[in-house]
UniProtKB/TrEMBL annotation:
GO terms for molecular function: hydrolase activity; metal ion binding. This is Peptidase M20 dimerisation domain-containing protein. Keywords: Hydrolase, Metal-binding. PANTHER family: ACETYLORNITHINE DEACETYLASE, PEPTIDASE M20 DIMERISATION DOMAIN-CONTAINING PROTEIN. It comes from the Bacteria. Residues 68-150 form the Peptidase M20 dimerisation domain.
Amino acid sequence: MKGGLVAALYAIKAIKDAGVSLPGSLMLQSVIGEEDGGLGTFATLLRGHTGDAAIICEPTSLKLIPAQAGALTFKVRVSGKSAHACMRLEGVSAVEKYLELHRVLLQLEKERNSNITHPLLGKFEIPYPLSIGRVQAGNWSSSVPDELVFEGVSG
């Protein structure tokens, strides 16, 4: 990401050095948290900085990506009921409950991406991805897990 930031700085310098007159203002924002919900970008917006367009210098295999869905990160806790493994049926496995949630989330992703009409986003295989990147459950291998926490991102 540092390379993209330097490229943006030099692009602004090139515009200035060439004497190009822009119809509006040009601002460079370097924010944190783009992979964790965009809190840096949100803080920038709260300070009143806005624009008509944005160029994000994200490495994309040297491809220009003219539209992007954005991202929202989330964290979900699934509750169960702990029991010793030898009495498994007396417990409620948070993992088993999560598996059903995961299937529903995959179906939601499929439905959200089934009829994309945006002329630029429709070029992506999955314009609005929903990805679970972290799953953590249980605290002992010989017990039914009473809690599972999963985290993900949705476009």
